[in-house]
Design goal:
It is built from 13 helices and 14 strands. The protein is an alpha+beta fold. It has two domains: 110 residues, Glutamine synthetase, N-terminal domain (Ubiquitin-like (UB roll), Roll), CATH 3.10.20.70; 292 residues, Glutamine synthetase/guanido kinase, catalytic domain (Creatine Kinase, Chain A, domain 2, 2-Layer Sandwich), CATH 3.30.590.10. It starts with 8 loop residues before the first helix and ends with a helix.
């Protein structure tokens, strides 16, 4: 796989020619992480380069609705349904490995007509945060661990989801944490996934079976945030496509099945000095630096307000429950998986912090942006963390919001996060998520019909 990191537009054109590509999928990650965009013939893509889409594409709910009469949304978009200009990022060009004809996919960056970046586009939000680190002479490094479920195909949303049938002809009925044989049940699928990801240069690290029936985890090698966010974006799309070709679903829902654990996207993060290449979380003698403690404290202070971005749907909060294999607070500790902020055991050059509160359903660009923003604020405000947790944090008090509505209120009040992420982005995001919450509240659940119909 060719390294595209420093690809120019001319490098991309040569690559498209060498691969005999005839079609280009031009992708724009929206606020939900859904791939919007257009499919263009190679000739049109090459001749015009720039593409246009309405700005409002970046301001719709996961169901495709736009907020109505929401002041923050109207202030950003106005009423003219303007276009934005989309320019391909050559470093993201990849083959579409499942396409019959030679097809490429490339992620597009969003600009206003005056050439300035669209400030509410997820990639630009992440770029805004990493540029703040760059201004300090630093470079964040991240490594996501992404959990997901394999499920039997189910076209009826009123029916509960169940694990798929594997090679043995049976589906999982028990939890098989770290079981090699349980992973091997789906060898044909994972062989395709690894082949697809190798073709796309996604550089997967390890694959394991997680707690839940049919629940897996894939780990990515560490790199810069934008590179990893792009890889997670591509991987989600690739996994869903591969699963469909094996007559099953793959889902990144935070909580797809009632009696199984939820799925997370744990993000390991550290910061290096761009001049020396040294990890600034460690002192020269190997001890923890002051900046390391500031960073932890920033996560502790701002993660509750960040949860609307890290747990973005009503379903997300079904994962954040006591003794549900997910953290319920922002305690921190060493090699302690019950806390929200874990410090893995490592050498001084690899000292890092693992944010464990993020759901697998989070937009990877926004998740990385806001977790880095929390740490950055901790450094800038010279915050100090609370006491280290040595026992189980599952028994401690809830410190994270219990639902999307509460999380949105916390985000709306967190002015320092607005300044880091961009006020206009926050206005659009809150408007979209409040609209989604209102849509959900109009739906009557099976639990309500079962327990309230004849008893209240």
């Amino acid at each position: 796989m060719t390294d595209h990191t420093n690809f120019s537009h001319s490098d991309m054109e040569k690559w498209l020619t060498d691969k005999r590509v005839t079609e280009i999928e031009c992708l724009v990650p929206d606020l939900t992480g859904v791939a919007r965009g257009k499919i263009l013939p190679r000739e049109k893509f090459t001749a015009e380069r720039a593409m246009r889409l309405p700005e409002a594409v970046l301001g719709v709910t996961v169901t495709g609705e736009s907020p109505e009469d929401h002041e923050g949304y109207d202030n950003v978009f106005g009423f003219t349904d303007r276009d934005m200009v989309l320019i391909p990022d050559p470093s993201t060009v990849r083959l579409v490995p499942w396409a019959v004809d030679p097809t490429a996919q490339v992620i597009m960056d969003c600009f206003f007509h005056d050439g300035t970046p669209v400030d509410f586009a997820p990639r630009n939000v992440l770029r805004r945060v990493t540029n703040m680190y760059k201004d300090m002479g630093w470079k964040p490094i991240v490594a996501p661990e992404l959990e997901f479920y394999l499920l039997a195909r189910n076209v009826d949303p009123n029916q509960p989801l169940v694990p798929p049938i594997g090679r043995s002809g049976r589906s999982e009925t028990s939890r098989q944490l770290y079981s090699i044989d349980a992973v091997n049940e789906f060898d044909p699928l994972f062989e395709d996934i690894y082949d697809y990801c190798d073709t796309m240069g996604l550089e997967l690290d390890t694959l394991i079976h997680e707690f839940g029936a049919g629940q897996m985890e894939i780990n990515f090698l560490h790199d810069e945030p934008m590179i990893l966010a792009d890889k997670v974006f591509f991987f989600k799309r690739t996994l869903r496509e591969a699963a469909l070709r094996h007559n099953m679903y793959a889902t990144f829902m935070a909580k797809p099945m009632t009696n199984e654990p939820g799925s997370a996207m744990h993000i390991h993060q550290s910061v290096v000095d761009t001049k020396t290449g040294k990890n600034i979380f460690s002192n020269a003698d190997g001890s923890e630096s002051k900046i390391f403690l500031n960073y932890v404290a920033g996560l502790q202070k701002y993660l509750p307000a960040a949860m609307a971005l890290l747990a973005p749907y009503v379903n997300s909060y079904r994962r954040v429950v006591r003794h549900g294999a997910a953290p319920i607070n922002i305690e921190w500790g060493y090699d302690n998986r019950t806390v929200g902020i874990r410090v893995p055991l490592s050498e001084q050059e690899n000292r890092r912090i693992e944010n464990r509160v993020i759901g697998a359903d989070a937009n990877p660009y926004l998740a990385m942006a806001v977790t880095l923003a929390c740490g950055y604020l901790g450094i800038k405000e010279n915050l100090q963390p609370g006491e280290v947790t040595t026992g189980s944090a599952y028994d401690a008090d809830y410190q994270l919001p219990r639902g999307l509505s509460e999380a949105l209120k916390l985000l709306s009040a967190a002015t320092p996060l607005h300044e880091i992420l961009g006020k206009r982005f926050i206005d659009v995001y809150v408007a979209v998520k409040e609209t989604e919450h209102d849509e959900f509240m109009r739906v009557i659940s099976p639990w309500e019909r079962e327990h309230l119909l004849m008893h209240v």
